[in-house]
Every structure is written in C-alpha cells, then in structure tokens.
C-alpha cells in the first residue's frame, strides 16, 4: 500500500474510532441526563415511606420489622424484572438474609456490587441511616434493569441484613458474610460500591465537619456534596467514579483515598465497604458523611422529613451514568 493510501486508511480508522467513542459517550450521557428526576424522587419518597413509616424500626431486635423490610426489598427488585435470591445465615436464634439481585450480561468484562444495609439502629427508624441508601439502591437497580440489553457491565445489588450494633464489627455483618463468601468461591468483583447515609444535606457555612486531619484541608464547609471514599487499592475505582460523577454537575462530588485500609482514620471504615477492603476487593463508600453532617445520626430524629430527595435522585442519576457508561 502506498503512502497516500495508508494515510487515507489511517484517517478512516481514526474517524471510525472517534465516531464509536462519541456514540458510546452520547449513549452514556443520554442514559443519565434523560432520566425523569421527578419520577425518581417520587419513587425514592415511597421507598423511604414504606421502610421508615409503614415498617418502622428494622433492627435485628425487632425481627418482624426486619423481615418485612427484607420482603419489601425482594418484591421491589422482582417487580422491576430482576432475578432475586437470598443469602441466609444464622444470627442467634433467628435467620437473617442478604437480599441479592443481578442485572447485565453474564459475559460482561466488568462486574460491580452495589450494596446498602437495610437494618436500622435499635429504637430508630433510620431514614438517612440507612433507608436513604436502600431507596437509592432500589431505584438504581430499576433504572439499570430497563437498560439491561445494552448494559456494558454486570451489577449485583446487595441489601445487607445487618450492619448496626450489636452486629457491627462481628462476623454477622451482612457485608462480611457476602465478602467472605465472594473470596472463598473466587468471585470476580471489579468494584464494590457501598451506599451509606446518602440523603442529608446542609447549606449553612460550617455545618459540614470532617475527621482529623481532614478539617485542615480545603474541603467545603457546607454539606451539599456526595463523598466517595476508597482505600489505596481502590484508587482507580475512586478516580473512575469521580470522572463519571463530574459529568453530572448538579451533584458535586468530593473524593478521598486513604492508606492502610483506613486504620489511620478509623471513622472511614464504619460501613459495609470495609469488609471488602479487608478481603482484598476494590471498594468505595458513597456517603453524605454521616455524623460529620447529619445531627440526627443514630437518634429518633432521623426521620424522612429531614431528607433531601432531590439530592438522592441526582445520586441515582450519577450512579446510572457511571454504571451505564463504557469501560473505564
């Protein structure tokens, strides 16, 4: 082939690649930005209403409420068209279960877990902690399932049975059960995304606090952003999510990568991502920063009237953009 023909051929390849990449980017942005956020917000309100008002306390010491929450999650995922199954395990005299569902092609090159615990602290209805996260999980699952024929990744949705005390930090945490099993059977997991308290915002300067020494850094003093926290081994996942989330400018995002699996700042380990860190899987926590922002944390005042459902709907949008986009 002569030089002229080679140049034309090379140029044609570049054009085709550009068009392919552009189409993929257009598709991913269309997926997120064409969402009916008002409808998503309405659905989020309904989920939180059921979990916190109709069911109420979902602690392991209130087994009837805990079981009703599990059924609601399973039925909601099933009604969205997902295949749902349980991962049961004993806790004292009762049996609890992680509720699992999956969407996306079986031969997908990447596989993620999107997880949130559905129990609440004893004596509370846990609207932000953690009904907000369960609601976001359910709406993300419903949206991605509708895209399933063209979804480029496989996503497992995991509603963890137990995270709050008295199970916290024990082998009975639902995320520990899930991570332990995944490691034992050699599951391929490119990233675990933990949703932990994702519904509270505050906009008065100084309302947002940080653990030491992050308070000395140039982080925002108002709490209208979503945080993404990963360990050093998860830094590529953190960066990929940050790039993707920034395509949705309506939801500011702040990221943090910590060394030594977070042990230097122990409060960044206080959720369901930490068992996956400890098992060697890439994992991040997506959060409103919990008690560093929300004054109702672990109190009876953590009710649905304190939540920002528009903020939560934008988080669903950002998650769909990330999980619905081409490989990163």
From TrEMBL:
SUPFAM superfamilies xref list: Zn-dependent exopeptidases
Domain Peptidase M28: 98-314
Any one GO molecular-function label of the UniProt entry: metalloexopeptidase activity
Matches recorded under InterPro entries: M28_fam, Peptidase_M28
Gene Ontology biological process terms from the UniProt entry: proteolysis
Protein name per its UniProtKB record: Peptidase M28-like protein
Source organism (scientific name): Desulfosoma caldarium
């Amino acid at each position: 082939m002569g030089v002229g023909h080679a140049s034309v051929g090379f140029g044609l390849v570049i054009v085709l690649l550009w068009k392919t990449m552009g189409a993929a980017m257009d598709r991913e942005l269309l997926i997120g930005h064409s969402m009916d956020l008002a409808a998503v917000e309405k659905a989020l309100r309904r989920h939180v209403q059921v979990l916190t008002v109709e069911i109420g306390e979902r602690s392991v010491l209130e087994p009837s409420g805990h079981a009703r929450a599990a059924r609601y999650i399973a039925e909601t995922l099933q009604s969205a068209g997902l295949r749902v199954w349980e991962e049961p395990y004993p806790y004292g005299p009762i049996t609890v279960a992680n509720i699992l569902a999956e969407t996306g092609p079986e031969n997908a090159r990447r596989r993620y877990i999107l997880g949130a615990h559905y129990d609440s602290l004893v004596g509370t209805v846990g609207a932000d902690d953690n009904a907000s996260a369960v609601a976001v999980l359910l709406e993300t699952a419903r949206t991605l399932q509708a895209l399933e024929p063209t979804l480029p990744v496989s996503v497992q949705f995991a509603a963890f049975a137990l995270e709050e005390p008295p199970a916290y930090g024990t082998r009975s945490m639902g995320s520990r059960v899930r991570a332990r099993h995944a490691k034992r059977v050699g599951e391929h997991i490119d990233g675990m995304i933990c949703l932990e308290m994702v519904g509270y915002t505050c906009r008065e300067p100084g309302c947002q606090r940080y653990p030491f020494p992050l308070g000395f850094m140039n982080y925002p003093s108002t709490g209208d952003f979503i945080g993404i926290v990963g360990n050093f081994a998860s830094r590529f996942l953190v960066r990929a999510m940050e790039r993707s989330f920034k395509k949705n400018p309506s939801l500011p995002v702040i990221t943090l990568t910590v060394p030594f699996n977070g042990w230097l700042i122990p409060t960044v380990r206080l959720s369901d991502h930490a068992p996956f860190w400890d098992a060697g899987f890439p994992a991040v926590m997506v959060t409103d920063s919990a008690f560093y922002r929300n004054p109702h944390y672990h109190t009876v005042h953590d009710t649905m009237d304190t939540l920002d459902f528009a903020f939560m709907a934008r988080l669903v949008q950002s998650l769909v953009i990330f999980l619905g986009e081409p490989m990163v």
